[in-house]
Amino acid sequence: MKLHRQLLTAAVAAALFVPAAHAEVAIDVIGGSEITFEGLVQADGNWFDNDKADLNGVAKNGKDSEFELRRAELVLKGKGPGNVEWVVGYDAKADKFLDTNVKYKLGGNANHFFQAGQYKQPNSLEELSSTKNNDFISKATVTNTYAVARRLGVGYGFGDSNWSVNASAFGRELTRDLAHGSGYGVRGTFAPINEKGNILHLGLSYVDYDTDADLLRLRARPNADLATVRLVDSGDLKDTDRLSTVGAEAMYVRGPFKAQGEYYSSKAKRYDHSNYTTDGFYVSGVWNVTGETWGYKGGTPSLGLPDEPGRGMWQLAARFDHIDLNDGGLAANPVAGRPPIVDGVLGGKMDIWTVGANWYWRSNFKASMNYVMVDSKKYSSSARTFVSDKPNILEARLQFFW
């Protein structure tokens, strides 16, 4: 850990000398490859207004707050020689590899390529979008629960400026002891409207993979990355073979306004029980108060720098998301006085409203504030009924990127 901190400190110090007009650090041209250095550092604070569960209970620090360095990402990128691009990314905070892969662009076309290594799998608009430009501090509950992020694999992509098809076969994460399970995924996107400040995006995806050791557990935090408690939880499903997820996505940009949403439906195939099916969605809206708009590339939105760097770019945002991990119900117990019998899986339901503001200052800094309002309900065997838990959470983030 000491080495990680020293590496991060040196990287940030070097980035501070980068001119404000350029986000990345140009290193050199070596072997025909133009090498640049990028980084992202995020520090978070969460303040919990608990209801039933102590959202910071596992930390056992006696406080209703938590502060943590969330990310410390260091990334080397190379363009060339020829039509080759490569990237090596590492998160010094989480001690894991990020995107680490090689891409070959057929005919020099960025929309037609082969890719090998670790990369984000072809699913989920929010998961594939840039982390440094997230609309909210925490991704939506359904994205964190269902989306398949970085895995080792081989992929193929083909498309144009307004459509794309991507397919991938993948295995485990590059870093040992993290996500496992071989599978495949495919995503298709279409933008019937694709102009600067006027974009309509539609997409569909499907991912299917083997569950590790035939064990599956779906659970979700209440849109607070530093919470140590999950309010909805399927529990361990020990006879699970594969998990397949269908995703539908849409986004509309009009000038300084952006609306987007995604729906997921997931089915776990089980040996000794009925298949377990769950679903969820989110819808969100963002307003760039200072008038900036979004671009569009590779089936995801892109956000540029503030029009006036000294003033910065201000955003206001709101999101509603819902997840349902119930697939079953309660049956009356034939034995008098005994609790009802759980028929299926009762992992719980959760609805969450998030409102927030972001401030991007110049080309390297971002500050965010979110307020999260949670309404969850889950069956409790001890209470013999469904129990509601409705906490509120205040979240803050400071971000430095280059």
UniProtKB/TrEMBL annotation:
Matching InterPro entries: Porin_dom_sf, Porin_O/P
Keywords, ordered alphabetically: Signal
Protein name, per record: Porin
A family per Pfam: Porin_O_P
Matching SUPFAM superfamilies: Porins
Source taxon at top rank: Bacteria
Signal sequence coordinates: 1-23
